[in-house]
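Appendix B: complex inputs.
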Amino acid sequence: MNPDQLKILLQAVKGGDTPVDEALEQLRHFPSQDVGCAQVDHHRELRQGMPEVIFGEGKTALQIAQIMRAMTDKGSNVLVTRLDSVKAGEICIQFPTAVHYEEARCLTLEQKSVEQNCRGTILVVSAGTSDLPVAAEALITARFLGNRADHIYDVGVAGIHRLLARREQLCAASVLIVVAGMEGALPSVVGGLVDKPVIAVPTSIGYGAAFGGIAALLGMLNSCAAGVTVVNIDNGFGAACAANLINRM
Amino acid sequence: MNPDQLKILLQAVKGGDTPVDEALEQLRHFPSQDVGCAQVDHHRELRQGMPEVIFGEGKTALQIAQIMRAMTDKGSNVLVTRLDSVKAGEICIQFPTAVHYEEARCLTLEQKSVEQNCRGTILVVSAGTSDLPVAAEALITARFLGNRADHIYDVGVAGIHRLLARREQLCAASVLIVVAGMEGALPSVVGGLVDKPVIAVPTSIGYGAAFGGIAALLGMLNSCAAGVTVVNIDNGFGAACAANLINRM
Amino acid sequence: MNPDQLKILLQAVKGGDTPVDEALEQLRHFPSQDVGCAQVDHHRELRQGMPEVIFGEGKTALQIAQIMRAMTDKGSNVLVTRLDSVKAGEICIQFPTAVHYEEARCLTLEQKSVEQNCRGTILVVSAGTSDLPVAAEALITARFLGNRADHIYDVGVAGIHRLLARREQLCAASVLIVVAGMEGALPSVVGGLVDKPVIAVPTSIGYGAAFGGIAALLGMLNSCAAGVTVVNIDNGFGAACAANLINRM
Amino acid sequence: MNPDQLKILLQAVKGGDTPVDEALEQLRHFPSQDVGCAQVDHHRELRQGMPEVIFGEGKTALQIAQIMRAMTDKGSNVLVTRLDSVKAGEICIQFPTAVHYEEARCLTLEQKSVEQNCRGTILVVSAGTSDLPVAAEALITARFLGNRADHIYDVGVAGIHRLLARREQLCAASVLIVVAGMEGALPSVVGGLVDKPVIAVPTSIGYGAAFGGIAALLGMLNSCAAGVTVVNIDNGFGAACAANLINRM
Amino acid sequence: MNPDQLKILLQAVKGGDTPVDEALEQLRHFPSQDVGCAQVDHHRELRQGMPEVIFGEGKTALQIAQIMRAMTDKGSNVLVTRLDSVKAGEICIQFPTAVHYEEARCLTLEQKSVEQNCRGTILVVSAGTSDLPVAAEALITARFLGNRADHIYDVGVAGIHRLLARREQLCAASVLIVVAGMEGALPSVVGGLVDKPVIAVPTSIGYGAAFGGIAALLGMLNSCAAGVTVVNIDNGFGAACAANLINRM
Amino acid sequence: MNPDQLKILLQAVKGGDTPVDEALEQLRHFPSQDVGCAQVDHHRELRQGMPEVIFGEGKTALQIAQIMRAMTDKGSNVLVTRLDSVKAGEICIQFPTAVHYEEARCLTLEQKSVEQNCRGTILVVSAGTSDLPVAAEALITARFLGNRADHIYDVGVAGIHRLLARREQLCAASVLIVVAGMEGALPSVVGGLVDKPVIAVPTSIGYGAAFGGIAALLGMLNSCAAGVTVVNIDNGFGAACAANLINRM
Amino acid sequence: MNPDQLKILLQAVKGGDTPVDEALEQLRHFPSQDVGCAQVDHHRELRQGMPEVIFGEGKTALQIAQIMRAMTDKGSNVLVTRLDSVKAGEICIQFPTAVHYEEARCLTLEQKSVEQNCRGTILVVSAGTSDLPVAAEALITARFLGNRADHIYDVGVAGIHRLLARREQLCAASVLIVVAGMEGALPSVVGGLVDKPVIAVPTSIGYGAAFGGIAALLGMLNSCAAGVTVVNIDNGFGAACAANLINRM
Amino acid sequence: MNPDQLKILLQAVKGGDTPVDEALEQLRHFPSQDVGCAQVDHHRELRQGMPEVIFGEGKTALQIAQIMRAMTDKGSNVLVTRLDSVKAGEICIQFPTAVHYEEARCLTLEQKSVEQNCRGTILVVSAGTSDLPVAAEALITARFLGNRADHIYDVGVAGIHRLLARREQLCAASVLIVVAGMEGALPSVVGGLVDKPVIAVPTSIGYGAAFGGIAALLGMLNSCAAGVTVVNIDNGFGAACAANLINRM
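Resulting structure:
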């Protein structure tokens, strides 16, 4: 139930078109619905500006399917993140219209078309080929939440001319998500070129003293470009959520 | 030199009102002016949407004054952060119109009035009395950059009713900066209550296993509220810069 | 041998009903019995208020079975924790009355019924679906040790209304075990709502900068709610042991 | 306002003895009172079973005095922790009946006598001479909250006979707070001797690889004695709060 | 020194032209033998008091066999540590008289009988069943190097009476190797009971905040029992080498 | 396109032998060529003194093959690092002239013979048998980039005579790459013996408190031999690149 | 056992009524003396082979003096470690025969002459000038405990010839204490040259990534020389205690 | 070799009885001079290509002066690093011709003029004003060792145009030392622009999660620009030593 639907319902109650009992039934699962392993939060969109998203890691395929069923019964679109291929396969059998993005480890099920009501374009910029899965998670999430989203890839700082050649596209975005592993320097350089919010995503790519993304994370937290904010390692999803909140009208 | 001034200059050149040599002189310090210890970047506002700010830590009072002189000569307003009281005293003697905020460890010098051209209000929310200095740095920076900015303080998560009592004010902000030390849980709770971007600032307050802000930083990076982004420990300034970029029209 | 049995035995010796030699035989394995790979401590209940529990990790199925045999020979109930499915299967063949809890990775064998002699209810509260295995370990242990134990699940702090809706149940418990991964903020909020001891259990759930539970652990150690104590990462068993000692009459 | 006072007030309202307006005035500062730098939570005792305590670190003497004034105006007793001698001196001038415990870095101001309504004795056990300040903080807090509290000191594990000689006293306590630095092994040994809850407090005492208490903290979290729970490094106050909640009737 | 030179030297010794002491001096730093992947150091025994031992991890079965062949050709006994079962199987086919100790992950090949010329007994003391493999590595190494070596197991500090019951055996040893995981407190207690050198071996056993042995390692480095020294995590071999040097006459 | 080829092209343009359009076509992929998953940087040699090298980890065999095809189409030699055997097998089927070095996890494809135009010899020195793969990566890279390169192996500091016996060869090198795991002390000793640049490579070999190479990395960063520089853990490739830049004329 | 009981026992020994062996047994675990802030353990020498030593850090001058008085009253020699100059000054006024070693931060008070009854010489070897204070603490402790002790200094591994020039002296020692900061490589080289026990002491000397001795500590724990054991950072005292236990007859 | 022997050797050289090459060989590993607190290594220049340099931290002014005297007596030039102003003042009184560089914390004493016999220019590039002291240490060391050395400062990556404007100067250097704190990204960008060796120096400048230079250090170790090597945090001296070895002819 999104804000518009709620407004219509309440006006119908006020106008007498909908009896209180019926409205109550519709609001029955407020604040949440117990599906045995989880409390599904149908009103998160109302409260937080985006629907609940299922974090697939640490849940069984069965648990994910239960939550999905509860959401699709309410007419919601569904996004599952951190989903490995085996679980995705089991779920796709039960939900034939679901789409599985293997590289991004995401699955979407769109029952109603995604409405685009945002200000501008979210631009995802990634540093190396190995950062593509995280960038893809950000892209798919941003689009699922109703944003226009583009991607520039393989523009690491050791070949700075590749990035400078895209300066125009960088400046045209309304929010930028910058994905990088290793030393995580790309957000600093991008943040110095644009006058828009930059969300930095460290990735766990790298070896040795990259320590699974710690080097990139620290680099981004210490960015000399003021205005860069950071999300968790490999958290393309979180970056897209933040970008969505910024980009909404 | 801000974008409007540049546009006027270029049109004057085009129209013949300003000779090329004179325009050249005005643009002479592009890209930066060498003041002996630093390259002052007069065009950062043009490029990044906010003027250069002087990071006071690790610079002598003399170095800071040199950079301030170069900026005031160009008519810029000046913000110095991380400035201890001794250095601030020396600088205030040379720049009598400068204002020193002791708790926030900031100094401002405003030659021209700050123009307010932003969408909404930046709300700074802080968890404990000890987080006040960092919150103050964020507030002063946000206002210096031309934003309306308010403050809710001492609303830690262990007394959740104090926070819930302010829900209306939380929901009315256009961007929220949430400052917390210790376990750093406040941004998660706030992020679950609003549908606006939340920027989390961990503080170094705490003892023992707080490890100078690491506990709060990790807590915020792992926030279960999607859409929370994080800046460096005690970096109220950085949070305000990011909030400013989001809040600008 | 529990305290009551010991008292009866000693009175029987005093009264002459039990010859010294026979009492000696019964006490023969005091302080412990060597089963080749371990010293089984039959008198831990006497000394520490709960029977010895077998930590299954790092022991072979054969070693576990040897220790179980020594315990069942003395009439004790048995609890094995951290037991993977393969080892559990081998053990269940040898001990057909044993019960294996797969999600909780526990196995129990109850020869005598568990006596409930505790003051109140231990309430296990968990934050996300992924925290269920640790919560389950705590629940099973608490019940094995003779406590009433209930469970509230999926009430993370980013949807604070879900937790507040259960306030009555929270306040009715005599001890609370709060299980959370990611930023580990739930114990702080719960600790601020109740006037009973709260034992916090960080879980290794999360990714990136969760660092296998370190973020949650630090968050809990730095809880702004006074009176929260913490056990090791994923240590639902330890939390239940502490809760049992508090809850006993 | 404690629970009894609230009950009397509400009955007076019900019976008509107290007009609603007057009751409202008395409850006016519910949930909290804004004293400029803090929201004083007068009803914490009602909600959490112990009055608000002022954490002195990171607050100025002036801020502490403001909060103390708001509390004493309501008739509350006051405890300030982490208070250095300079600030304590300034405060004692303003509050002549306050008592300053230098070793424990605490200050108390008792307007009404502390009521003892707890089950048994809280026993503080400390390992070395250097752990005395943290043990003292725990002792003073425990007594301030209305508990009987005793102390055994300098009984480190390298001279195990010193500890064993006190076994009777250990077993007679209803809750034990065990304070240790260096390797932090004392709680494991104590936990193996008693059948009561043990709260472990790591201290920052030690050098080199003690890392300011990390070694002791990790040792305690990994205690092989089931039922030991842990609080933050040097957090004698927190341990006493938890012990108080366990010890209350 | 090549084989021919060695031959001439030895003949000179045989013929009485070169005194034994002088020949010994000449051979003391005789270089090593290149076997393609390693420089086998045949004179380590002469120089360091024990023969070269093959560290099996990170070497292929083929590489290990090459080094073993070079050693057996010189008549040396061979010890291989950190050897998994697959590689051990391949090696045992080539060296039928080799003995594989699966729990200890060691393999020995003794061509000449081990000579016992040490002062006393090395006593290996281990805390839990899970520490057995590391204790076994220490035992086998100590015996391979010509020491008498005994073992006390499952005497963790949470059941201190089990350890105290063995006090006589502890005091009779000439060197003690104390193996423990989790909080690693056992060496402190043992070190307080005996007047002999104690070598502490942290093991990687434990979970959560044990961090693969870091908790035990830090505990041991910070032992309050003076005279405890520490080796690397799981390094039973290293502890036995040190104990051997101490125990030799 | 290497510097010589570019010079010839530009002279041809200047002299009118090559029309601008044709030159443009040849330079078309400047700065980089988009192959779908990567921006291949054909001019890195021009800019950085060595051709682009493909980092195999985190890329699929298909992605690697795409990049290789784009490079071979331009006539470049190809080096792939961090390539596991499965992917190497797939690639070798498509590029039959490619050579796979299993121990070094590298693959080379040389279309034109490697030109040797360097000053002296790069000497790779490694401490233990287990360091061989990293040393091999350095050797193959150094030779691929046109250097003479030799190898001394198994000369750890605990048998210092083995290293001293090779002093002449050490002093004859123009650059030294010193590879070591465990305590990483070899570069300090080597750095004290020679008057040439020493590049230290920590390896992840070791166990327990080696922490995957951190011990060796820290040891090398803190080397008491002035003039030692360090690369990332296991980064034989990076060490060879640096050595190549030093060794070039 | 109180003084009267002790007197009776000793008279019984004197009179021949109690054999010495029996008296020894009775006194072996004689408890300790409470001096208000500590339990002085007069029988540690009997039990652990060396007298109790006062760790000065974290104790006030007054507390140290109390413990010293209790010990001198029993006729014991006294060693205080980690004593800063201010406290040492206060103590020397009260105990005029005490000797203060400023560099070593130690103080000794010898009432009876130290008896030398050890096997050989303890040799302290240190790497740099900055390691001298830790080496001095080891030297003074070793001599206080009745050992012959010598010192070789400034023989770091980057100038290996300085160390090799002392090989004879190294080989003549019965135990070696090797003190080093920075990369901590010296124990590995020394351990490879001698056939005696080597105790490694990391020091906190160094900067940057030395991390207060962590680099040296890890280097020593990972020493490739088998038989090296390690004590805590800067713990020259602990190393000397261990060396004393090894060196005793 | 004692002074007399040295005299005889030199007279033999003078008289032609000993060829220079033979004398050189004899003197190559001449041991060191004992000055009480250090072994001064007069032949380091011969062996390692640069004279011994005195590390001032952790040494007293007296110790430094002793070592300086021993060096000046031999006619050497002297460089002292990490020297605070107090000690520098004391030393300058004794050595009036010494020069103290306060910002760089260095002192030089040049008895003979520094000979410039290097290939090209060492270019020091630093990111922020706060990095100047470390850059200055590198500059002074490089010049002391006989190199031409220049400096570009305040060219951080967030204003990439400032760096690109200096591209010509960057490409003209023979070795580059790149000094940066915070995220440490500058070496990656510089390394991508030049074809010369780049030595990266992380500085401890920054706050919060900069962790005293760890963020910059990790960033540099993980540089995506191949050929970058790294020295310890704040180690401008070490970087200059390495650059000198590279730059020598």
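Chains F and D do not touch (no CB pair under 8 Å).
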